[in-house]
Hints:
53% of the residues lie in helices and 0% in strands. The protein has 230 residues and is an all-alpha fold.
Amino acid sequence: MESQRPQSDTELPHPFSPLVEQAIELSAQWHDRTYRKSRWRDEPFEVPDDEYLKVPVVSHVTSVAMVVQRAGWDDETVAAAFLHDVIEDENRWEARFRYENLSQLMGAKVAELVREVSEDKLDATGNRRPWRDRKIGYIERLQNASDGAVAISVADKLHNLWTINESLVKDVDVFSGGRRREALQGDPDQQRWFFNEVYSIAEQRDDPRLNAIRSRLKEEMNRFDVLTGK
């Protein structure tokens, strides 16, 4: 039987991307000392009695970018996945990253991908918008977004829902605040509605690189239904 011919160096993807490296650095700097709402894993090492471990936001964006990369997307989409929360979320000094600055630093395509998956958290007067209004705006934007942006969105929701489900398995009530955790703003029915809307948009796209991410999100949606008693 003929053995499979190994790929030549010219057929292999380049092992290093300066664009992705810059995105990792910028994301880590922007999200420095910002954290997820709660944690569910046991502490992996001892910390001082008056301290406790929190989950850095950069761990989330890294997980999302790895999902996008493993699904076969290009360097610009992977870079945008690392940066998908920089426009939407404040840094530790409560500053906001401007789209124009991101475009200058990372290029127009990366910046546009990030904008396509960013919520408008503030209204015209600078006040925080209600959770439902933000999500409706996000869904409306995603409906007209590129396939790459949809891939980032689905990867983002997949990781978010997976962490919610893992928390529920460990009896962490993510829907109510508690010691060392902040409650999710949407209740189970609202969360279910939002994930279904994102999934429905992805289901209408034909790019085969979306298939595995979309299927995995559906699995977590089904698990969420079981865990929340639907």
